[in-house]
Structures are given as structure tokens and as C-alpha cells.
Amino acid sequence: MQPFTYSKAATSDDVIAALTGEGVQLIAGGTTLFDLMKLGIEQPRRIVDVSGIGGLDEVTLGPNELVFGALASMTDVASSPALQENYPVLAESLLKAASQQLRNMATVGGNLLQRTRCNYFRNGAMYACNKRNPGSGCAALGGVDRGHALLGGSEACIAVYPGDWAVALTALNASVDTQSPRGLRSIPLADLYRLPGQTPDRDTELAADEMILRIRVPAASYGRASTYHKIRDRESYAFALVSAAVMLDLDGDRVRAAHIALGGVATRPWRAPQAEALLTGQTLTPARALDAGRAAFEGATAGHHNAFKIELGARAVADALMIAQQRSTGQ
Amino acid sequence: MTTHTFPDRARVDALDKVRGATQYAADVAVDRMTHAMTVPSEIVKGRLVSVDVQAARAIPGVLRVLTYQDFQDVAEAVLGAVGPYSFRTYHAMLSDRLIYRGEPIALVVAETLEIAIEAAALVTATYAPDAFSPNIDAEGTEVFVPEGSISFGDFDQAFDSAAVTIEAEYNHAAQHQNPMELISTTADFRGGHLYIHEGSQSSGAIKFGVALSLGLDPERVHVMSPTVGGGFGQKNSMQQQTVLVARAAMLIGRPVKLVLPRGQIFHMATYRPVSRHRIRLGLDAAGKIVAASYDGQQQNSRAETFRGAFSETAARIYAIANYRSSEQLIRTDTQSPGFMRAPFEHPASFAFESAIDELAHAAGLDPVALRLANQAETDPVTGLPFTSRHLVECLTEGARRFGWDDRSPAIGSMQDADGLLIGYGVGVGCYKAATSPVIARLRVSADGRSRISLSGHEMGQGMRNVIVAALVARLDIDPQQLEVIIGEPDGAPQHVTAGSWGTASVVPAVEAVADEWRRKLDDLRDGRSVAGNVHQVLFRLKRPYIDAEVQVLAPGQPVAVMDRLRQSLPSAVGPQYPEFVGLSFSAHFVEVRVEPSTRRIRVSRVVSVIDCGTVMSPRTAESQVYGGVIWGIAAALREISEQDPRYGGVLNNDLADYVVPVNADIGAIDVSFVNKPDPLLNAAGVKGLGEVAMVGVAAAIANAVHHATGKRIRSLPIRIEDVL
Ligand SMILES: Cc1cc2nc3c(=O)[nH]c(=O)nc-3n(C[C@H](O)[C@H](O)[C@H](O)COP(=O)(O)OP(=O)(O)OC[C@H]3O[C@@H](n4cnc5c(N)ncnc54)[C@H](O)[C@@H]3O)c2cc1C
Ligand code: SF4
């Protein structure tokens, strides 16, 4: 462990002022950052604690927009009865993540920036890893890749984006408001996460001196017809083998619009437009749901140990669609 | 014969444990204590050319960086031996030789843990790597064939003439015990004496091992292991770090504490090795199993001869007249495996009980009926009688409690209201009823205090409970002022507490020392016994205290074995005694539910019936069985130590990625006991329980999965991709 200095910020302006120079990191709940520091992946010299900033933990579920302050805890957001009732996909994506203890500490802003669980990335500098040590290669290629990406990978990196919340947010066209010395901006989630390409060391488009203030989600009258369906190696406290975030705008049995995103199988939260298109204007049946699931995995590239996720993922999407449909009719 | 089940009582340490007040070894704080951290090797096999410790030394607060050069004079203590088969003889950092990824190459000692961690990360090394064989399928492994495989009758002839035969190969993955308590050692060298605090199932092995390794008089090595936060076989020998830490403490003249991070435990500790089981069974037209062969392979390191004694139990369940087995160790370049709960019996029962299910299926027989029709009456291996055997009752009572009769035999023929496929499966197991000699010392004082010291370790299984219960049932003493000293060789010589022999060995010793103490008291009164509180009796007699000591042997053991116990050498015996064979038995009935689409498997219900002789302590006994069943579920459906053969080592070396089950994975578990005293093994009628509880569970699950899905999965763990 490398020594670092610690300071606590009172306002977001303080944070931005402090985020200058090399080796500065802000810290919210710390559940990702401390873990990565212990593994030697993150080695900040200065840490700026944002957890004391007032007002950034507020959550408002308005008629046009849902706004989640970046510092709201996963537990607080997940246990909101209104969210559970009207947007189960969002509440479930949080509830099915990590453990109660972690959710109590973790913030919904910090959650977006968790890093891959790739074992080679985490296991020390002795493994070739372009994400950890640019240019060193990728040990996961040809290795134990059961947890690696089938979608969005490159020859430089096939690491999965591990989180759940961002997958649900991606399905719902969310964006983040940020602040930096260059001012305020809003970034759609679809643009926040980068494909690895040749530079897998950079996970997101966020600048080093930029802070997420809040997350915005457009409201949907049909939010109830949604679910976050997560398949994992155990029933709790596990990252997704594959997950499907689904929300349906239904007119009876007919699909007006479908929102589908995948987790656990791609290098970033993965929207599935082919699957959505296949359902638009169609009657939702179990067979069509499975077709949509298959379409979501078109173009998937399997490694040695993860090919099963193409079929598993298709079925998970199909099940999620049927759950969402059931919720819409209130059965 | 006295037979008794003690009244249900709360664990003596329950309150402390829930308040976090229990002190485990790593909680010990000693004056002027320093902190150590190991530096793991980055290659699998080869030679350490040089270690650069400059940068680490330069960090303020670093006291010393030890490398193999500080251990040149250390004797390799061959202590982890069971008979001729060693499992923990290799100790890292004694030379420049490296034999597996992750073994320590340096030990940093610093003023604080943080400094030790920081400095350890700065130690670099150059290596001369050699080619290596990371697993049993790799090139360059060595095959070692241990002696003494079990065979009787004429397998070939019986198999060839059988009416129904099956032949299959089963695989078990490597798995690591992950007790909550991390491995740690705190060593303090003061006034020519070495004091060691370490969570261990074998504090005596540490005492004599460290003394031998460092050339100390064992009388000057004091080991304390009063409470262990889970052992499961991981802590049943002197571990690799103990000598390193002890030497460091002697060199710097201050106490040193090392707590290994979880990730390093996956590389420093022993574990359940990969094993492969090829089984053939033959059934005659009358439904008798007439032939069985069992060819077992088990992974090992290059350094050890730890064997996979699968047939020791597999050959003893059924009355199979013709049995042949072979055994191989496949030596690989990994850290040394060792004993992990039901080390041979669990993988063997997965393989053999799966094979029995395949045979029943092939013959169109009910799996419970087939088992009942083939029970051994006497021990098939030796011809000796069993001390007691109630497996039939386990099966019939289990079937009744479970509702086995509701099973519709056709594959995939049962579904619940939500469309989940239901499967029923059964598996049985046995485990040796072993006994260790015990020395017990008791002092009861007039002032109300008592102290009992004896051989045994408390690993959370409830040994203290049993000791207190047995003693207060025998002597009217004040339990509030009773001190129980176990896991401490200074109190009494220590056996390795493993192999489910704890209770069966300790209870007779407690009863014997209580009786001896009573005899000494009565002697003072010319042999006249008096009822009532014995502290008051002493007080009236004006005797401050009376001491008593007994030695209790296992049935048929020569007194000479006490010399082995005094040096903490393996001294337990079982299942084979001179005149009989002692085994505990279990039957497990499992219901799984399998999702039709994504095929998630859930174990919704388990019914377990156990024959462990007398149930001494109902609460802790039940809890042992829950733990065993849950671990069976874990072994069958969850746990695997993942290796990348290009690199060796264990990749998923934390509790997020090494998947142990969580509460949400566990359904209903119904535990019951036959609870009939064993008439021959000991006065209390006790047989072992801790390990038999797990034996048979994994096969019952695999058999249930087959019943639900038609998929016969012969490799553990069964994961979603296997049933998709
Ligand atoms: C064992 C384990 C299991 C887990 N399982 C799951 C799971 O199943 N599913 C899942 O989705 N997640 C899981 N997680 C991840 C967990 O959800 C995240 O660690 C958590 O949400 C991060 O939030 P935090 O507030 O603690 O972030 P921190 O650790 O404080 O910060 C994380 C990163 O984000 C940056 N950051 C934090 N807040 C901001 C901000 N407002 N603006 C800009 N940058 C910021 C920090 O600088 C840091 O780089 C698991 C974590 C662990 C340790
Ligand atoms: S997949 Fe990415 S994170 Fe994993 S080893 Fe390769 S480059 Fe590193």
C-alpha cells in the first residue's frame, strides 16, 4: 500500500478545485476504490472524500424525469417503494448487486465507475493486461475466459463491464450530469462507456478532473412493465453471468417499444437494438421473446469457456420479456 | 454402560461469539509487536536467482526483509505425515528452489501492517524458470502408485458374467477450504522461550515442528490455539509460515505477527486436490451387486505422497463380493494438497453413489431399494464385524421423512406449479469412527474453581461444549468457574483434532478423569463417597485442591502409543480396530428444482439421517450436519478453484470469485439421528459426526439433477452450462 493524503470536500466546487495534478482520486463509498488500492491497481497520492457534500444524495421521481443524486446509497435508492413499484428494473438492478453491507456503503454514482472483475487484471502485475499496464498484452485471450465478453471485445481486451445498475440505466436512456473545470455537461450513458479498442485502460469518457453530480432518467408511464433479470453462479452476492434489463411499452399484447440491455456479457453496458427492433409492432409471445433474445446476441464472439452464454443470454432475455409483460398486465 | 445424551444447552462460547468478544489467534496483540507480510513468487517452478530488497528496506519503519538466506540452517521438519504418506513436508523459503506459483520468496517485517504491505510490494526478484506441469492432464507429470489398494474376490469373472453393468468416470475439481479465520501466526521470543499464537487443529505439531526446524528444546516452545475460526483440515499440521515468523521474531528480538491475506491462502494452504474416479459395477439377475472396480487418481504436488484412499469407504457400504481397486497419485507442480473435510470419502461417495444410481437406472430399479438390497452385514474388506451399523434405518427413515414414495421414476416427469422440473436423488455415505488417545488433567479447588486440560482443539465444532457437558454431568462442580484448556500443549499433550475423532476421544477421557478425581476424593474419606458440591466437600476437608490425571487409549491400542501422543505424532486409529470395524453412516435425500429455461438448479429440500452412535450434544450435532450438508451443496454446485494452465496458481482467489454458497442458496434441511449408542467403541457409545455429515450429499444432488433433467453430470461442480 502506498501512502496517500486524505481530505474531505464540502462542495462540488471544492472537489473540482482539488482534482488537479497527478494521482488525485475522489472517493464516495470506497467499496471499489479501496479494493483496487489494496490490489495495487489504483495508486492515488491524494484522495478527496465527496461523501460529505450536501444535497447530492437526493432522489426525486418526477413526472418527466427521475433524478438520482450521485451520492445516494444503493440501499436508499433500491428500497424506495415508489421506485420498486414504478421502475422495478432500476430497483432490482441495485438489489441484486453486491451484498447488503456493500450496498449500504456504495453510492449510485460510484457504482457506475466500478472496474472489471477480470481475474488477470486483478491478480497482479505479473499477468499481461492492457487495461492495467497498457501495451503488455491480454492474458485473458486464450485463458480462463468464462467471465469474459462476447460482445464489444477487441484483440486488446475482452473484459466485461461488471455492474448491474448501469445496464438498467442504459436500457432506460439515462444520462449523467457532470462538473469539471470546463463547466457542466450532460453525457448520455450510451456515450459514457468506451469500447476497449486499442486503449482498454480508459473505461469511460469521463475526464480525470470531472465529477458525476447526478443521474437523470426520462420518466416512462410504462416503467412497471420492466425487470432486471440476473443469472449468476449463486443466488446473491455474485456478479452476473448474464443479465437482461428490459422495459416494455405495450398496447395489449402488441409491443409499441422495447428497451433491452445486456449485462455480464459485454465490454460495456450493452443495448440490444436488433432485439428491440424485432419486437416493435409485434405481438409478444414466448417464441418471439426467444427470437429477440437470439437477436440480442447476433454477432457475439465466444472464447473457450463462455460460449454457453449465447444460449443462456437469449433465454434470460426471453424470460425477462415475459416477466415484464406479466407485470404490465398486473397478473 | 452409561449412555446419555446431554440436555440441550447453549454453546458455552455463544455469547462471546455473537458479541465479537472471542479472541482468535489473529486478534492477539502483544507488547512491541511488529507486522509481517509475505512476497509471493511469480513463477511456478525454477530457481530464485536473486531477490532485490533495497527498495523495501528503504521504506521507513521496515525492520527486516528475510529471504531464504535467513533460513539456510533450518531443518525441514517432516511432520505432516500420516503413516508413510506425507501431505505437508515441503516448506517454502528454505532454499532457492521454487515449486509452485505463489509460494513466499521473502518476508517483510515492519512497525505497522501498512508499512509491511507497502514494502512487500516493492520486493522484486529474478527467476530461472523451468517448464512445469500445472495439472493432472499436463505433460511431464509423474505417477506414483501407493501400496495397499483394496481388492478381494474375482472382479473380472464377476463383471463379465453380470446381467447389468455400468462403467463411468467421475471428476472432482480442486477446492479450497475458506474458513472465516485467516491463517495467521504471532511469535514472541522472550527469555529463551518462544511463544506462538496460531489458529490450529494441531498445536502440538507446531510445538515439535518449530522446535525441530529451529533447533530449539520443545520445552521452550509454547503454543496457544484455544479457539480456531474454522479448520476443516486446512490447519491440521504445522503450516508454512510458522517457522518463518518464529525465526523472524528471534532475529529481530520483537514479537512478529503475520496474517495471510485471503488471496495468499489459496496458495499457501493445503486444499482438496483434483481427483478422477473410474468405476465399473456389475449387477446379477437377482438384483445383487456382484462386482465393483474403482480406479482412482488424485493430484498431488511433487513433494508429497498424500494418497487418495477412496476405497477405504467405498468398499465398505455394500456387500459386493468381488472388488478391485487401484490408486495413483499424479504429481504436478502445484502447492501441496491435503485433507479437506471428508477428504477421500466425499469425492469417493460422489463417484460411487452416482455409479450406484446409474446402475439402478440401467436396471430399472428403485435407487433406495437397490441400496437396501445390497447392504454389507460384516465388513467386506476384513471380514470383521461392524461395531454398529444402522444405515438401513438411515435409508428407511430418510425415505419416510422425505416422501420418497412420491417419486415418479421417469426422467423429467415431476414438475411444480411454476413449471420447474423436480428431481429426487439419494446418496449414502460412511466415515471411519476413529479414536485418538487422550491425556486429561483435572484440578478442582475448594475455592470453587476447576480446570481441565486435555488433548483436543475447538474449531467451532463445539468441543468445549461437550467437555463441559460431560464433566458437569459427572461431578458437581461450578460450571461458571470451570476453565477448559485445549489446543495448548502446555496443558496436556495435543493430538491433531481431525478425522471426526474429537468427541469420541474426549468424552471418555473427561468421564475417566472425573471418576479418577472422585476416587481420589473418596480415598481421603476412607473410600466413603459423599454427595453434593465437591468444592464444599474439599473445603470441609481443608484440602485446597485435588489433581487427577488419566490416559485413555482407543480400543486395542498399546500403551506405547502414548509416547507418540506426547510428541504429537499421529496416534489415532480407525476404522479398523483389532476386533472390529467402526464406521458412522449417513443417508441424504435431495430435492432439486431446475428452471426450464435458464436451468438454474436450486436444492429446495434435503433430508439427512445420520448414524453417529450416541448424540452427545444435540444442538452442536445438528449444526454439524447443517454445515456438512451445506458444504455438500457447495461442493456439488458451486466451488471450484480455477486455474489457468499457462500460469499455474489459483485465479479466483477471493470470496467474490470463489463461489461458496450464501443463505439464499440453501433450502430446507431436515436433520435427524438414529441415536443408538455404539456398544464397542467407547463407554459413551459415540462415533464421529463432523465429516460423515457431508458424505453422500453431492451424489444425491447429481442424482436428483439427473432425475429432473436426464443429464448425468459426472464432473463437479455442476454449473449452469452443464445442464443448459
Ligand atoms: C465483493 C463485491 C461484490 C460486488 N458485487 C456487485 C454486483 O453484483 N453488481 C454490481 O453492480 N456491483 C457490485 N459491486 C460493486 C459495487 O456496487 C461498487 O463497488 C459500488 O457501487 C461503488 O460505489 P462507491 O460509492 O463505493 O464507489 P467508490 O469506491 O467510492 O468509487 C469508485 C470509483 O468511482 C469514482 N467516483 C465515485 N463517485 C464519483 C462521482 N460522483 N463522480 C466521479 N467519480 C466518482 C471514484 O474515484 C472511484 O474511481 C461489488 C463490489 C464488491 C466489492
Ligand atoms: S481482458 Fe482486458 S482486463 Fe482482462 S487481461 Fe485482457 S486486457 Fe486485461
TrEMBL record, chain A:
Keywords of the record: FAD, Flavoprotein
UniProt xrefs under SMART domains: CO_deh_flav_C (SM01092)
Protein name: Xanthine dehydrogenase family protein subunit M
InterPro entries the UniProt entry points to: CO_DH_flav_C (IPR005107), CO_DH_flav_C_dom_sf (IPR036683), Diverse_Substr_Oxidored (IPR051312), FAD-bd_PCMH (IPR016166), FAD-bd_PCMH-like_sf (IPR036318), FAD-bd_PCMH_sub1 (IPR016167), FAD-bd_PCMH_sub2 (IPR016169), Mopterin_DH_FAD-bd (IPR002346)
Domain FAD-binding PCMH-type: 1-222
Source organism superkingdom: Bacteria
Lineage: Bacteria, Pseudomonadati, Pseudomonadota, Alphaproteobacteria, Rhodobacterales
Pfam families, sorted: CO_deh_flav_C, FAD_binding_5
Automatic annotation (TrEMBL), chain B:
InterPro entries assigned to the protein according to its UniProt record, in alphabetical order: Ald_Oxase/Xan_DH_a/b (IPR000674), Ald_Oxase/Xan_DH_a/b_sf (IPR036856), Ald_Oxase/xanthine_DH-like (IPR016208), AldOxase/xan_DH_MoCoBD1 (IPR008274), AldOxase/xan_DH_MoCoBD2 (IPR046867), AldOxase/xan_DH_Mopterin-bd_sf (IPR037165)
Alphabetical list of Pfam families matching this protein: Ald_Xan_dh_C, MoCoBD_1, MoCoBD_2
Top-level division of the source organism's lineage: Bacteria
Aldehyde oxidase/xanthine dehydrogenase a/b hammerhead domain location: 19-131
Keyword field: Molybdenum, Oxidoreductase
GO molecular-function terms, A-Z: iron ion binding; oxidoreductase activity
Protein name in UniProt: Xanthine dehydrogenase family protein molybdopterin-binding subunit
Organism ancestry: Bacteria, Pseudomonadati, Pseudomonadota, Alphaproteobacteria, Rhodobacterales
